[in-house]
Amino acid sequence: MTDTAFQKASPSRVGAAAKRPTRVATVSWGGKAVQIGGTHPVVVQSMTNTDTADAIGTAIQVKELAMAGSEIVRITVNTPEAAAAVPAIREQLDRMGIDTPLVGDFHFNGHKLLTQYPECAQALSKYRINPGNVGGGKKREDNFAQMIEVACRYGRPVRIGVNWGSLDHELMARLMDENSRRAQPWEASAVMREALVTSAIDNARRAEALGLPHNAIILSCKVSHVQDLITVYRDLSARCDYPLHLGLTEAGMGSKGIVASTAALAVLLQEGIGDTIRISLTPEPGGDRTREVVVAQEILQSMGLRAFTPMVVACPGCGRTSSTFFQELADSIQSYLRRQMPVWKTRYPGVETMNVAVMGCVVNGPGESRHADIGISLPGTGEIPAAPVFIDGERTVTLKGDTIAQEFQQIVEDYVERRYGVGARVHNQADS
């Protein structure tokens, strides 16, 4: 036997690094409290794209995002009409039984809206302030202070969100001047990244000096290039202990936005950096806004950081699988499982960790199905028209005919009830 890694004292470690130690901020509404930071799980956020002045339309979209799994939802508050509508949005959500906290996104006139519309300030659970968009010079200091004072008055946490598209011009100019006097000046992009980090931390410290509690501040430094985002957040995480909100701003549409966001956030999350995430996808015409929530959940679940819904393993298909039946069945089962989760997550605790395999031929089908909690291996081209079903590693039944899809879905339902239902919990408690 050759000298191999197997002869090492211990196996290689699998999994993300431990989360970086941070303060813990609480975003709450009613009896619901979302903990951000510390050892708490990474939180999924999203944002509406409705006109906030349309209270009913915005409340409906918030509900859709919340039902899809968004634990915090941000809404634009940009006009007096929008600010006036926020209490009605909150009231409508409460009537619908949606206690998801709302975050107000403020730019340019946030100091006026928060002070002139106190009901808006109270109906929001958190404020997002972009220090690059609150004015310049003395006006900037006064406007920022006004917003922090409102947050202190109502006990609301604040995300200080810096964006490279709206950096503080005065800070950037000062850092550029300092850089020009270096013996070896940095590249302009490096100065910009430093400006992002400096702006976020300096404004957080100023907010604390104005009275905002140290555990009521969350930071973000958003850019739209993957490598810049990774570098900025590594630097930011090394220089402060505030919880961090991750997101690739203006990520893009469709697969480009999904791939870019995943590439950036996966690296940071693997290093233990990040306490909340949002996937800033541009919706395709007529597209579903909840797509960004699903992608965020799938990133976290694929990395083993959280579990939201049963995962479906399906083969990509090849010349052995000329029929599209297994693709249709995989899509049907995956959609079915996600639709059930609003009910299942309370009725069947733990079901979100279930693994389902829908495979298309005999090559990897039986093996993958055995590794899953429940799986089916469909016949490939030229194979016997039969589909063995495996439960907890054992072959239990073979399905045939035109009702394979319906029968397999019923088997999944029965399995969920048997393994995660009340009877299973009572049995497990008795054994323990």
Automatic annotation (TrEMBL):
<feature type="binding site">
    <location>
        <position position="318"/>
    </location>
    <ligand>
        <name>[4Fe-4S] cluster</name>
    </ligand>
</feature>
<comment type="function">
    <text>Converts 2C-methyl-D-erythritol 2,4-cyclodiphosphate (ME-2,4cPP) into 1-hydroxy-2-methyl-2-(E)-butenyl 4-diphosphate.</text>
</comment>
<keyword id="KW-0408">Iron</keyword>
<keyword id="KW-0414">Isoprene biosynthesis</keyword>
<keyword id="KW-0479">Metal-binding</keyword>
<feature type="compositionally biased region" description="Polar residues">
    <location>
        <begin position="1"/>
        <end position="10"/>
    </location>
</feature>
<dbReference type="GO" id="GO:0046429">
    <property type="term" value="F:4-hydroxy-3-methylbut-2-en-1-yl diphosphate synthase activity (ferredoxin)"/>
</dbReference>
<feature type="region of interest" description="Disordered">
    <location>
        <begin position="1"/>
        <end position="20"/>
    </location>
</feature>
<dbReference type="InterPro" id="IPR058579">
    <property type="entry name" value="IspG_C"/>
</dbReference>
<dbReference type="InterPro" id="IPR004588">
    <property type="entry name" value="IspG_bac-typ"/>
</dbReference>
<dbReference type="InterPro" id="IPR016425">
    <property type="entry name" value="IspG_bac"/>
</dbReference>
<dbReference type="Pfam" id="PF26540">
    <property type="entry name" value="GcpE_C"/>
</dbReference>
<keyword id="KW-0411">Iron-sulfur</keyword>
<feature type="binding site">
    <location>
        <position position="368"/>
    </location>
    <ligand>
        <name>[4Fe-4S] cluster</name>
    </ligand>
</feature>
<comment type="pathway">
    <text>Isoprenoid biosynthesis; isopentenyl diphosphate biosynthesis via DXP pathway; isopentenyl diphosphate from 1-deoxy-D-xylulose 5-phosphate: step 5/6.</text>
</comment>
<feature type="domain" description="IspG TIM-barrel">
    <location>
        <begin position="33"/>
        <end position="296"/>
    </location>
</feature>
<dbReference type="Pfam" id="PF04551">
    <property type="entry name" value="GcpE"/>
</dbReference>
<dbReference type="InterPro" id="IPR045854">
    <property type="entry name" value="NO2/SO3_Rdtase_4Fe4S_sf"/>
</dbReference>
<keyword id="KW-0560">Oxidoreductase</keyword>
<dbReference type="InterPro" id="IPR058578">
    <property type="entry name" value="IspG_TIM"/>
</dbReference>
<feature type="domain" description="IspG C-terminal">
    <location>
        <begin position="312"/>
        <end position="413"/>
    </location>
</feature>
<dbReference type="InterPro" id="IPR011005">
    <property type="entry name" value="Dihydropteroate_synth-like_sf"/>
</dbReference>
<protein>
    <recommendedName>
        <fullName>4-hydroxy-3-methylbut-2-en-1-yl diphosphate synthase (flavodoxin)</fullName>
        <ecNumber>1.17.7.3</ecNumber>
    </recommendedName>
</protein>
<comment type="similarity">
    <text>Belongs to the IspG family.</text>
</comment>
<keyword id="KW-0004">4Fe-4S</keyword>
<feature type="binding site">
    <location>
        <position position="315"/>
    </location>
    <ligand>
        <name>[4Fe-4S] cluster</name>
    </ligand>
</feature>
<feature type="binding site">
    <location>
        <position position="361"/>
    </location>
    <ligand>
        <name>[4Fe-4S] cluster</name>
    </ligand>
</feature>
